[in-house]
Write a structure and sequence with these properties.
This protein is α+β, with helices and mostly antiparallel strands and 724 residues long. Helix content is 48%, strand content 16%. Strands 2, 3, 4, 10, 11, 12 and 13 form a seven-stranded mixed β-sheet that branches. A four-stranded antiparallel β-sheet has the order 1-5-7-6. A hairpin with a 2-residue loop joins strand 6 and strand 7.
């Protein structure tokens, strides 16, 4: 059955507006739905539903505040789009007699479906003629379709958690939503679309939830709705609201002689905590400036959703800024500031106490107590992990080409990097692990490189987080994450397609991104093998034999994803390059970039055809082949010529590979083999009856193929012409 949908031919078009008024929605949920991997999930959902209901539109815009979700569609026709279906009935030979008359069987089927002979169409399917009928579905008016669209939307909005509060659908099932729904509005132009969602009535009324105005208002039409909310100070568009909040906070910070501390996560969160933002500022006790910047800003952001300020020296200024939901009077702002200030004072007083207590015991002494902290069930304690990291640094220092002073700093950082997990400050603020280790390391006189390595070895914590800035913390971060990934795979805790509780995909991607960013040359295989050796007492026996191959496949998949995200859109080229190995990640990325610059050149196409033809002919061989071709077994002149070209160009191609000039290597390969192999395949029968001659020819072709596929890329995976 095939379906064809055409836009409805209606002169009358109007905008559609649907508003869901709720109690305060979770800010983090809204932020995630609007920016999930660069996609607005709410917009994606409504578009899919509209497509299913055959409603076309000009633009689709989705807005959200803590109190309302708004879906605005422009230029929606007054009826559904027309829909035609071709329905397969039966083979032509069963439907018609030899002289072309319709058989009784066909007529009965047509009668049952309410169709006639004039509706019949003939079309081939799999090389065989079939009878189809064309069926048109009725075009329902938009006023009938919209209730179904928005009921479906309410049922399927992709919130991670929903609650029930006594409202039921018409069929008796529970109505669920992240927070109780208090109001529903639906307009088509200036027409209210009235229907019921359980016991909730959908109308043309919107509700203002501000403390200064908690009323229900009738809305005349779609433009009036937007004008009305704007007049009430409500900014519907999250992007505009976030921009406005940032601008106002920056102005306020400037008036206080500082600048806003950059916290994108907090800005994103408060954007969905206020639909009509207002702002307050207040000072706090300068005594708390003794605390590290991160402690101050995290305490403000995570516990009270308030912003810190920095002075011209990039030090914390003794002021904070807060965003309010709804306009406040000067007197109200004074009271609100005082309340914020008193809570902040108590929190920072606790933090200062924790900080002073933590500094009484060195990280070195805390390290021994890590034996009581489990790293991973079945993989020992955090002290075991600390010892492993030190051993990895010692064993792999030459692999990473670490200078002597960096080796010493890194060994020290590896020993101490987990000690801050036992501090009171990290107990209060888990997101400060690593950060507090850096602060305490500085306080106790460790080198700056050691302190920085401790502080940055967790980076990146999230997909959007920054990467370590220098070599030492980058290497420690790589080793720390390799230990986690190998441990989990060795215990059978591999991620599934939808379940990755230990963040192994994120860790593997981080290893790759750090390596590429810092351009670190090392053997991934050797690092994984060394990590496996360190973890050998914990690895399950049945997991050990296939552990490294499984890890190789896992890192290959993550490398593909990282390269695709980085702008390499030719997936076939990525596949081809990775097929030749990716043990040195940075060199592999260089190779990919190098080949992508010549992929449209004739030499690349010719090289790809050489590889493709040799791969295809070798697929038919299952017999063992000699390690190399024997010239004494050649019986054809073209065999000798191919072998001579191989001997003549092999060293030059390998030298180009060693120097990283893969484009030149490709040119040499194409020039050497494209023409001569074309003649070879025309004139020489590879699968000769004589077993020795046959195997010798296959060995020759294997050598030609491997010269490129083992060192550069398996170009048989390249699509030489774009898909139609």
């Amino acid at each position: 059955m095939t379906t064809k949908i055409r836009r409805a031919r209606n002169d009358a078009e109007a905008d559609v507006l649907f508003e869901i008024g709720t109690e305060e929605l979770p800010a983090t949920n809204l932020a995630d739905l609007f920016e999930s991997a660069g996609e607005n999930l709410l917009e994606a959902r409504i578009k899919k539903i509209l497509e299913e209901h055959r409603l076309s539109y000009g633009e689709c815009k989705v807005f959200a505040t803590p109190r309302r979700l708004v879906f605005w569609l422009t230029s929606v026709p007054a009826a559904q789009a027309a829909k035609e279906q071709l329905i397969k009935l039966l083979p032509k030979e069963e439907a018609y007699s030899a002289d072309g008359k319709p058989q009784e069987k066909l007529l009965v089927i047509l009668q049952k479906r309410g169709a006639s002979i004039s509706d019949v169409r003939l079309s081939d399917l799999g090389g065989k003629p079939y009878v189809f009928i064309k069926k048109k579905e009725p075009q329902a008016p938009v006023t009938q379709v919209l209730p179904e669209v928005f009921k479906t939307l309410l049922k399927t909005l992709p919130f991670p958690k929903k609650m029930k509060w006594g409202i039921r659908w018409e069929d008796g099932s529970d109505f669920s939503f992240p927070r109780p729904v208090r109001n529903l509005l639906c307009l088509y132009g200036n027409k209210p679309i009235r229907f019921k969602v359980g016991t909730l009535h959908v109308s043309n009324r919107t509700v203002i939830f501000l403390k200064s105005d908690r009323k229900s208002y009738a809305v005349k039409d779609v433009p009036s709705y937007f004008k009305f909310l704007k007049a009430k100070g409500i900014i519907l568009d999250p992007k505009k609201r976030k921009k406005k909040i940032k601008e106002e906070l920056e102005k306020l910070a400037s008036l206080l002689g500082g600048r806003l501390y950059d916290d994108p996560f907090l800005l994103n969160e408060v954007c969905f905590l206020a639909e009509s933002p207002d702002y307050v500022s207040a000072p706090f006790d300068k005594e708390f400036l003794k605390l590290p910047l991160e402690v101050l800003t995290v305490s403000m952001a995570r516990q009270q959703r308030i912003f810190g300020l920095l002075n011209k020296k990039d030090e914390v200024s003794p002021y904070f800024l807060a965003v309010l939901d709804g306009r406040a009077t000067a007197q109200e702002k004074k009271l609100i500031s005082r309340n914020y200030g008193s809570i902040l004072h108590a929190k920072l007083k606790d933090s200062l106490f924790f900080y002073k207590e933590d500094t009484k015991v060195s990280l070195e002494k805390k390290r021994e107590d890590l034996k009581g902290l489990i790293f991973l069930k079945g993989a020992g304690s955090m002290l075991d992990k600390s010892h492993r990291l030190v051993n990895l640094v010692k064993q792999l220092k030459d692999e990473f080409c670490l200078p002597k002073e960096t080796q010493d700093s890194l060994e020290r950082a590896a020993a101490l990097c987990k000690s801050d997990l036992l501090t009171q400050m990290v107990g209060e603020f888990p997101e400060l692990q690593g950060v507090m280790g850096r602060c305490y390391a500085r306080d106790s006189g460790e080198t700056e490189e050691t302190a920085l390595s401790i502080g940055e070895h967790y980076l990146p914590r999230t997909v959007q987080d920054r990467l370590p800035k220098t070599l030492a913390p980058s290497v420690l971060s790589i080793l720390d994450k390799c230990d986690l990934v190998v441990a989990c795979f060795g215990l059978g805790l591999e991620p599934s397609s939808s379940f990755d509780p230990y963040g192994l995909r994120r860790s593997a991607s981080a290893i790759i991104k750090i390596t590429l960013k810092q351009r670190i040359h090392f053997s991934l295989g050797r690092v994984l093998e060394t990590a496996k050796k360190e973890l050998s007492p914990f690895i399950l026996k049945d997991k050990e034999p296939q552990l490294i191959p499984r890890l190789g496949d896992f890192f290959k998949d993550r490398f593909k994803a990282v390269l695709s995200e980085g702008g390499h859109t030719r997936e076939d080229l990525i596949e081809a390059v990775l097929a030749s190995g990716f043990d040195t990640l940075h060199a592999t990325r260089v190779k990919l970039h190098n080949l992508s610059t010549v992929i449209h050149q004739a030499s690349f196409t010719e090289a790809a055809k050489v590889v493709e033809r040799t791969v295809n002919i070798l697929k038919g061989s299952k017999e063992p082949l000699p390690d190399r071709a024997d010239p004494s077994l050649f019986t054809e002149e073209l065999e000798r010529q191919v072998y001579a070209e191989y001997e003549r160009t092999r060293d030059s191609i390998l030298e180009a590979v060693r120097s990283g000039d893969y484009a030149f290597a490709t040119s040499l390969y194409a020039k050497a083999f494209f023409d001569i192999l074309g003649r070879f395949f025309e004139k020489v029968f590879v699968y000769a009856e004589d077993v020795n001659i046959r195997r010798n020819r296959l060995a020759l072709l294997t050598a030609v193929k491997n010269l490129y596929t083992e060192k550069i890329a398996d170009l048989s995976k390249i699509r030489l012409s774009p898909p139609v």
